[in-house]
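S2.1 Query sequence (NAD(P)-binding protein)
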Amino acid sequence: MTSTPVAQNLAGKVALVTGSSRGIGAAIARRFVGEGANVIVNYLGNETAAVKVVNELCSIRPGSSVAIKANVSSFNAVKQLSEQALKAFGRIDILVLNAAMVQDKDLSEIDEEDYDMIFNANVKGPLFLTKILAPQLPEGGRVIFFSSALTRASGVASNFLLYTASKGAIEQITRVLARDLGSRQITVNCISPGPIDTEMFHQGKTEDMVRFHESFHPLKRLGLPEEVSGIVALLAGPGGSWINGQTIGVNGAYCV
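Output C-alpha coordinates follow.
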Protein backbone atom coordinates (compact mmCIF):
# COMPACT_ATOMS: atom_id res chain seq x y z
CA MET A 1 0.00 0.00 0.00
CA THR A 2 1.51 3.32 -1.05
CA SER A 3 1.20 6.40 1.12
CA THR A 4 -0.55 9.51 -0.17
CA PRO A 5 2.04 12.10 -1.21
CA VAL A 6 2.07 15.34 0.78
CA ALA A 7 1.30 18.44 -1.28
CA GLN A 8 4.38 20.63 -1.66
CA ASN A 9 2.50 23.87 -0.97
CA LEU A 10 5.52 25.46 0.70
CA ALA A 11 8.24 24.36 -1.71
CA GLY A 12 11.03 26.92 -1.87
CA LYS A 13 9.82 28.81 1.21
CA VAL A 14 11.82 29.48 4.37
CA ALA A 15 10.10 29.61 7.77
CA LEU A 16 11.25 30.77 11.17
CA VAL A 17 9.25 29.09 13.93
CA THR A 18 9.92 30.35 17.45
CA GLY A 19 9.69 27.86 20.30
CA SER A 20 9.86 24.90 17.95
CA SER A 21 11.98 22.37 19.83
CA ARG A 22 8.85 20.64 21.17
CA GLY A 23 5.06 20.61 21.25
CA ILE A 24 3.07 22.69 18.78
CA GLY A 25 6.16 24.43 17.41
CA ALA A 26 7.88 21.15 16.57
CA ALA A 27 4.70 19.86 14.90
CA ILE A 28 4.59 23.02 12.76
CA ALA A 29 8.23 22.56 11.78
CA ARG A 30 7.55 18.96 10.72
CA ARG A 31 4.50 19.96 8.71
CA PHE A 32 6.38 22.77 6.96
CA VAL A 33 9.30 20.55 5.96
CA GLY A 34 6.86 17.90 4.79
CA GLU A 35 5.29 20.51 2.51
CA GLY A 36 8.64 21.56 1.06
CA ALA A 37 9.83 24.46 3.24
CA ASN A 38 13.14 24.94 4.98
CA VAL A 39 12.72 25.66 8.68
CA ILE A 40 14.71 27.48 11.34
CA VAL A 41 14.02 25.84 14.69
CA ASN A 42 14.28 28.40 17.47
CA TYR A 43 14.76 27.24 21.05
CA LEU A 44 15.73 28.73 24.40
CA GLY A 45 17.10 26.12 26.81
CA ASN A 46 16.68 22.57 25.55
CA GLU A 47 19.40 22.15 22.93
CA THR A 48 19.02 18.36 22.97
CA ALA A 49 15.35 18.61 21.98
CA ALA A 50 16.12 21.19 19.28
CA VAL A 51 18.88 19.05 17.76
CA LYS A 52 16.56 16.05 17.80
CA VAL A 53 13.91 17.99 15.86
CA VAL A 54 16.47 19.28 13.35
CA ASN A 55 17.86 15.78 12.80
CA GLU A 56 14.35 14.48 12.25
CA LEU A 57 13.59 17.23 9.72
CA CYS A 58 16.88 16.68 7.90
CA SER A 59 16.09 12.97 7.66
CA ILE A 60 12.95 13.97 5.76
CA ARG A 61 14.94 16.27 3.48
CA PRO A 62 18.69 16.79 3.99
CA GLY A 63 19.69 20.35 4.78
CA SER A 64 16.10 21.44 5.40
CA SER A 65 16.56 22.73 8.95
CA VAL A 66 18.90 24.44 11.39
CA ALA A 67 18.53 25.30 15.08
CA ILE A 68 19.14 28.76 16.53
CA LYS A 69 19.15 29.47 20.25
CA ALA A 70 17.57 32.78 21.28
CA ASN A 71 15.58 34.26 24.14
CA VAL A 72 12.68 35.84 22.26
CA SER A 73 11.73 38.04 25.23
CA SER A 74 14.82 40.22 24.68
CA PHE A 75 15.06 42.87 21.95
CA ASN A 76 18.78 42.31 21.45
CA ALA A 77 18.22 38.56 21.27
CA VAL A 78 15.47 38.78 18.65
CA LYS A 79 17.66 41.12 16.63
CA GLN A 80 20.45 38.56 16.68
CA LEU A 81 17.96 35.77 15.93
CA SER A 82 16.70 37.63 12.86
CA GLU A 83 20.26 38.16 11.59
CA GLN A 84 21.20 34.51 12.09
CA ALA A 85 17.95 33.30 10.57
CA LEU A 86 18.46 35.37 7.43
CA LYS A 87 22.01 34.02 7.09
CA ALA A 88 20.85 30.41 7.47
CA PHE A 89 18.88 30.22 4.21
CA GLY A 90 19.23 33.71 2.76
CA ARG A 91 15.61 34.74 3.28
CA ILE A 92 12.50 34.44 5.44
CA ASP A 93 9.07 33.96 3.86
CA ILE A 94 7.05 32.75 6.84
CA LEU A 95 7.30 33.94 10.43
CA VAL A 96 5.53 31.85 13.08
CA LEU A 97 5.57 33.40 16.55
CA ASN A 98 4.76 30.38 18.67
CA ALA A 99 7.07 30.78 21.70
CA ALA A 100 5.36 31.96 24.88
CA MET A 101 5.59 31.91 28.65
CA VAL A 102 2.81 30.83 31.00
CA GLN A 103 2.51 31.94 34.62
CA ASP A 104 0.29 30.73 37.45
CA LYS A 105 -0.46 33.78 39.62
CA ASP A 106 -3.58 35.82 40.34
CA LEU A 107 -3.99 39.55 41.04
CA SER A 108 -2.97 39.29 44.70
CA GLU A 109 0.30 37.55 43.81
CA ILE A 110 1.62 39.33 40.71
CA ASP A 111 4.22 42.08 40.81
CA GLU A 112 5.98 44.30 38.30
CA GLU A 113 8.64 41.67 37.63
CA ASP A 114 5.96 39.12 36.75
CA TYR A 115 4.29 41.60 34.41
CA ASP A 116 7.53 42.42 32.62
CA MET A 117 8.47 38.76 32.30
CA ILE A 118 5.17 37.71 30.71
CA PHE A 119 4.71 40.73 28.46
CA ASN A 120 8.35 40.69 27.33
CA ALA A 121 8.08 37.05 26.29
CA ASN A 122 4.55 37.04 24.90
CA VAL A 123 4.17 40.54 23.42
CA LYS A 124 7.42 42.51 23.13
CA GLY A 125 9.46 39.69 21.62
CA PRO A 126 6.95 38.67 18.93
CA LEU A 127 6.16 42.30 18.09
CA PHE A 128 9.76 43.40 17.65
CA LEU A 129 10.83 40.25 15.84
CA THR A 130 8.04 41.03 13.38
CA LYS A 131 9.15 44.67 13.14
CA ILE A 132 12.73 43.62 12.38
CA LEU A 133 11.84 40.97 9.82
CA ALA A 134 8.84 42.62 8.14
CA PRO A 135 11.02 44.62 5.69
CA GLN A 136 12.71 41.35 4.69
CA LEU A 137 9.50 39.44 4.00
CA PRO A 138 8.68 39.18 0.28
CA GLU A 139 5.33 39.99 -1.28
CA GLY A 140 3.03 37.15 -0.31
CA GLY A 141 4.88 36.59 2.98
CA ARG A 142 3.12 35.29 6.07
CA VAL A 143 3.14 36.31 9.73
CA ILE A 144 1.35 33.97 12.14
CA PHE A 145 0.97 34.87 15.81
CA PHE A 146 -0.29 32.63 18.62
CA SER A 147 -2.98 33.52 21.15
CA SER A 148 -5.02 31.24 23.43
CA ALA A 149 -8.62 30.11 23.78
CA LEU A 150 -8.47 31.64 27.26
CA THR A 151 -9.07 35.08 25.73
CA ARG A 152 -12.62 33.90 24.95
CA ALA A 153 -13.28 31.22 27.57
CA SER A 154 -15.87 32.31 30.14
CA GLY A 155 -14.34 29.99 32.72
CA VAL A 156 -10.80 31.39 32.62
CA ALA A 157 -9.09 30.99 36.00
CA SER A 158 -7.88 34.10 37.84
CA ASN A 159 -4.31 32.75 37.97
CA PHE A 160 -4.02 33.17 34.19
CA LEU A 161 -4.46 36.94 34.44
CA LEU A 162 -1.16 38.09 32.91
CA TYR A 163 -0.97 35.28 30.36
CA THR A 164 -4.49 35.96 29.09
CA ALA A 165 -3.89 39.71 29.01
CA SER A 166 -0.73 39.22 26.96
CA LYS A 167 -2.57 37.04 24.45
CA GLY A 168 -5.33 39.62 24.16
CA ALA A 169 -2.64 42.12 23.17
CA ILE A 170 -1.39 39.74 20.48
CA GLU A 171 -4.86 39.47 18.96
CA GLN A 172 -5.05 43.27 18.64
CA ILE A 173 -1.55 43.43 17.18
CA THR A 174 -2.72 40.90 14.58
CA ARG A 175 -5.66 43.11 13.57
CA VAL A 176 -3.54 46.24 13.15
CA LEU A 177 -0.59 44.62 11.38
CA ALA A 178 -2.91 42.87 8.92
CA ARG A 179 -3.83 46.29 7.55
CA ASP A 180 -0.31 47.66 7.84
CA LEU A 181 1.47 44.81 6.03
CA GLY A 182 -1.44 43.93 3.76
CA SER A 183 -0.38 46.67 1.34
CA ARG A 184 2.59 44.41 0.52
CA GLN A 185 0.37 41.32 0.15
CA ILE A 186 1.67 39.98 3.47
CA THR A 187 -1.03 38.33 5.56
CA VAL A 188 -1.03 38.48 9.36
CA ASN A 189 -3.15 36.02 11.31
CA CYS A 190 -3.34 34.50 14.77
CA ILE A 191 -3.96 30.93 15.93
CA SER A 192 -5.87 30.51 19.20
CA PRO A 193 -5.54 26.93 20.46
CA GLY A 194 -7.47 25.33 23.27
CA PRO A 195 -5.85 22.72 25.54
CA ILE A 196 -3.38 20.71 23.45
CA ASP A 197 -1.78 17.42 24.44
CA THR A 198 1.80 18.62 24.89
CA GLU A 199 4.50 18.17 27.49
CA MET A 200 4.01 21.77 28.59
CA PHE A 201 0.26 21.32 29.08
CA HIS A 202 0.77 18.28 31.33
CA GLN A 203 3.35 19.97 33.57
CA GLY A 204 1.99 20.41 37.09
CA LYS A 205 -1.35 18.77 36.28
CA THR A 206 -2.78 15.63 37.86
CA GLU A 207 -4.69 13.08 35.79
CA ASP A 208 -7.92 14.43 37.28
CA MET A 209 -7.04 17.93 36.11
CA VAL A 210 -6.34 16.65 32.59
CA ARG A 211 -9.65 14.79 32.52
CA PHE A 212 -11.37 17.99 33.70
CA HIS A 213 -10.05 19.84 30.65
CA GLU A 214 -11.01 16.95 28.37
CA SER A 215 -14.58 17.11 29.67
CA PHE A 216 -15.06 20.60 28.18
CA HIS A 217 -14.72 19.25 24.65
CA PRO A 218 -17.56 17.53 22.77
CA LEU A 219 -15.00 14.93 21.62
CA LYS A 220 -13.87 14.43 25.24
CA ARG A 221 -10.17 14.66 24.52
CA LEU A 222 -7.34 17.15 24.19
CA GLY A 223 -6.27 18.49 20.84
CA LEU A 224 -3.09 17.23 19.20
CA PRO A 225 -0.18 19.40 18.04
CA GLU A 226 -0.68 18.05 14.51
CA GLU A 227 -4.25 19.35 14.55
CA VAL A 228 -2.87 22.84 15.07
CA SER A 229 -0.03 22.54 12.57
CA GLY A 230 -2.44 21.78 9.74
CA ILE A 231 -4.20 25.12 10.17
CA VAL A 232 -0.85 26.93 10.38
CA ALA A 233 0.25 25.25 7.14
CA LEU A 234 -2.97 26.37 5.46
CA LEU A 235 -2.36 29.99 6.49
CA ALA A 236 1.28 29.78 5.40
CA GLY A 237 0.48 28.37 1.96
CA PRO A 238 -1.37 29.59 -1.12
CA GLY A 239 -4.70 28.53 0.40
CA GLY A 240 -4.30 31.25 3.05
CA SER A 241 -3.92 34.18 0.67
CA TRP A 242 -7.39 35.63 1.40
CA ILE A 243 -7.32 35.03 5.16
CA ASN A 244 -5.97 38.12 6.87
CA GLY A 245 -6.33 39.80 10.26
CA GLN A 246 -8.09 36.82 11.77
CA THR A 247 -7.79 35.07 15.13
CA ILE A 248 -8.69 31.47 14.37
CA GLY A 249 -9.85 29.20 17.18
CA VAL A 250 -8.44 25.67 17.08
CA ASN A 251 -10.04 24.33 20.22
CA GLY A 252 -12.52 21.55 19.46
CA ALA A 253 -15.40 23.74 20.71
CA TYR A 254 -13.67 24.33 24.04
CA CYS A 255 -15.11 27.80 23.59
CA VAL A 256 -17.34 29.09 20.80
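The helical segments are 23-34, 47-60, 75-89, 112-133, 161-182, 199-202, 207-215, 225-236. The chain has a mean pLDDT of 90.
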